Amino acid sequence: MLTKRIIPCLDCDLQVPEGRVVKGVEFKEIKYAGNPVELATRYYEEGADEVVVLDITASHERRATMADVIDRLTENVFMPICVGGGIRKVDDYIKMLKAGADKCSTNTAAIKNPSLLTEASKVVGSQAVVIGIDAKRRYVPHPDDAKDKIVIETEKGYCWFDCSIYGGREFTGMDAIAWACECQDRGAGEILLTSMDGDGTQAGYDIELNKAINDAVDIPVIASGGVGEPKDISVQLLQQVFSISTNIPLVK
After folding, report:
1. 154 has which bridge partners?
2. Long-range contacts of 175-182 (CB under 8 A, 24+ apart)
3. CB-based contacts of 164: which residues, under 8 Å, 6+ apart?
4. Residue among 82, 89, 84 at smallest CA distance from 113
5. I need a surface site. Which of 31, 177, 195, 204 has the fewest CB within 10 A?
6. Could you tell me if 236 and 205 are in contact, meaning their C-beta atoms sit under 8 angstroms apart?
7. Left (φ > 0), alpha (ψ -120 to 50) or beta: where does 187 sit?
8. CA-CA distance, 204 to 242, in Å (whole number)?
9. How confident is the model over 41-69, as pLDDT tens digits?
10. Burial classification of residue 188, based on how many CB atoms lie within 10 Å of its CB (0-12 exposed, 13-18 middle, 19 or more buried)
């Protein structure tokens, strides 16, 4: 069994040179939360296993800024770093890895061009290719009402999980469980799975979503979205999800 990991996730707005970390609820109500280098350093000192840095305002013009932030992170942070946001082509993977990242996460670009995962895994290796999946519950009265979707039964009823892109601004109608399996087949080495329903709520992880994805694939799954206190992490780990992502301060 893989080692359990605690992984802070820093959602960043890198429109300013030094970058800034932001937090929201269900991908909305975005507020300033600190400096990415300072927060990553703090998490490292508190015992985090890895850190994820996501540029949620990514554009082609800001890629150099992201590289600068990662370069500054590596001066004080000596743990694996995953970078996401604006990773659209294989050269972006290479550029971020040269800047000091250990792996790169992509979401929108992979959905629009699934072959990106295949190509990137051949060039930089599957261990450096992370697929980000931002999923939202879609409830249905009965499993037959969602044809071509993988419907699961939850405490709140039947639902399937819809993949979103562009930082949650647009939904694709793609089934998240089926997409996770395809990403694994295409060479992704890890899944960063965010529950849009749980994001920022601090009401606990979406255990049913995480377990459904984890049961469907063999690669590591990072559960993200919803942690509010240490007991949420303990409960989630008991569900055999391998890794935990959180954007609240760690408890020593």
Report:
1. 157
2. 175/148, 175/149, 175/150, 176/133, 176/135, 176/209, 176/213, 177/150, 177/212, 177/213, 177/216, 178/149, 178/150, 179/111, 179/133, 180/131, 180/133, 180/213, 180/216, 180/217, 181/216, 181/217, 182/114
3. 27, 134, 135, 136, 170, 171, 172, 196
4. 89
5. 31
6. yes
7. left
8. 16
9. 998 999 899 999 888 766 434 445 577 78
10. buried
For the annotated catalytic residues, the residue numbers are 11, 134
46: tokens are: 């508190």
**2 closest CA partner among 246, 185, 243:** 243
> Could you tell me the residue ranges of all domains in the chain?
5-246
Q: In this predicted structure, what is the pLDDT of residue 235?
A: 57
Residues in the chain: 252
pLDDT tens-digit readout, 13-30: 766 666 777 776 655 566
The total of other beta-carbon atoms located within 10 Å of residue 135's CB is 28
